Amino acid sequence: MSERAAPFCCPYCGDEDLRPSEEGSVRGEGAAWECRSCSRAFRLKFLGLLSQGLSASPSTSAGGAS
Question: Could you tell me the pTM of the whole model?
Answer without folding.
Answer: 0.58
